[in-house]
Amino acid sequence: MPTPLRFGTDGVRGVANQELTPAVAMALGRAAVEEFGATQVVIGSDTRLSADLLVSAMAAGVASAGADAILLGIVPTPAVALAAERFSAPAAMVSASHNPFGDNGIKLFAPGGLKLDDATQSNVEARFHAYLAVSPLDSGGMGPGPTGPSVGSISDDTSGATKAWIETVVSSVEGRTLDGIKIVLDCAHGSAFELGPRVFAELGAETVVIGDEPDGVNINAGFGSTHPEALQQAVLDHQADFGLAFDGDADRLIAVDNRGEIVDGDHILALLAADWSARGKLNHNTVVVTVMTNLGFHRAMKSGGINVVQTPVGDRSVLVALDEGDFSLGGEQSGHVICRALATTGDGVLSGVQLADLVKRSAESLGAAADAAMTSVPQILRNVRMSERIPDVVERLQPQISAAEAEMGDDGRVLVRPSGTEPLVRVMVEHLDAQEADRVCAMLVEATEALIGS
């Protein structure tokens, strides 16, 4: 029976062993081999209890298609992407990122460590649905699998792929060290729980590590980039220079400054963009962000003479724009920071190293530097639920949106967009005056509700 799962921007995600079953993983493994004509597929995972189940099933699918499955073990997502680049092979990361432990996912990378383009994503999805439409013992109507010596193998990586990722991150600061800096690392009980601290230790930082005791069920539970409270307290308790929090698969980063205050993705990007621009490392003096990026960021970049390219929500959209424009830096408010000149995908550990290097070279604390980099504009975000999707809802609201934009001028910004996954309309308003942002947002929410109810 076909699975109800559909591809998102990277692969599939759902409740492990209920929606994301071993049959799904096995079919996806075979589909990836078929689509890329691969002889090898690299597979890594985070610390979830269901990881072994799904890695084993996907590896079996790869081997059943005649390719060799190379298992990296527990590694950050960017280490998997780098291995795909080194092996010139497709790769998969078994992780549900910041989701609770009961969920899991399989994120695919094309050979070279790149995200799948739309056509390839559709092809892989069609193949794996075709496999699942028949008995697991059947070949799925896509030709018989190999037999005898043509069956693939499953083995642990012996090439040093994990070490290569560590060396790449460490070398990104061009021989400098982090000696004399005290950092708290929150590894979310996730995939960076061992390798993240190793990177910072090699760079000479004094580290205090929390969220580094995974037990299969505690990933992201009260720790990590989506729960920074523990990191905030630890930074204060240990009188650290700052703290860094990763998510479950370590492709996301949130920082906490010396005062225990959160430094989000917008501020991290503002800091790095200004630093890279000053050092001639910001290609075309341009940074790429999404439509959710705070208006304060845009104002700061304009003041600093840095160009901004804006994309739809999602790190995949950011990556496409980075590559199309030959740009070197981009990301999202959520903490997906993509140092494209140094990696093929978002890397929380790499971004943290870049931020730490910036702080060490600066005469300021992270708190002072973040304050100087940008001032966040009050942002109000509300969701309006629809009983059914209205494809042209934004177009029909355009008179009200245009009126609100004209009223606010350069002091505010409006974004109304339908959710890509739920029957929701997301209404976001930013304004230098928080009360004005709240007023305009309430007006647009009322107009949206009236339209939906009409």
Annotated CATH topology of the largest domain: Alpha-D-Glucose-1,6-Bisphosphate, Chain A, domain 3
| Number of domain units | 3
> Strand percentage, roughly?
15-25%
CATH superfamily of the largest domain: Alpha-D-Glucose-1,6-Bisphosphate, subunit A, domain 3
Shape: globular
Gap between N and C termini: 39 Å
Share of helix, binned: 25-40%
Report the total helices: 15
Pick out the low-confidence regions: none
CATH class designation of the largest domain: Alpha Beta
Radius of gyration: 23 Å
Provide the structure class: alpha/beta
Chain-averaged pLDDT = 92
Largest sheet: 7 strands, mixed
* CATH second-level architecture of the largest domain: 3-Layer(aba) Sandwich
The tally of beta strands, per DSSP, is 19
What would you say this structure looks like, in words?
By secondary structure, this protein is of the alpha/beta class. The protein contains 15 helices and 19 strands. Strands 1, 2, 3, 4, 5, 6 and 7 form a 7-stranded mixed sheet that branches. A 5-stranded mixed sheet has the order 9-8-10-11-12, sandwiched between helices. A hairpin with a 6-residue loop joins β10 (242-246) and β11. It starts with 10 loop residues before the first strand and ends with a helix. The mean pLDDT is 92.
Topology:
Elements: E1 11-15, H1 22-36, E2 40-45, H2 51-64, E3 68-74, H3 77-87, E4 91-94, E5 103-110, E6 114-115, H4 118-132, E7 154-156, H5 161-171, E8 182-186, H6 195-202, E9 206-210, H7 229-237, E10 242-246, E11 253-256, E12 262-263, H8 265-278, E13 286-290, H9 295-303, E14 307-311, H10 315-325, E15 329-331, E16 337-339, H11 348-361, H12 366-373, E17 379-385, H13 393-396, H14 398-408, E18 412-418, E19 424-431, H15 434-453
Parallel strand pairs: 2-3, 2-4, 3-7, 8-9, 8-10, 13-14, 13-15
Antiparallel strand pairs: 1-5, 4-5, 5-6, 10-11, 11-12, 15-16, 17-19, 18-19
Helix pairs in contact: 1-2, 1-4, 3-5, 5-6, 8-12
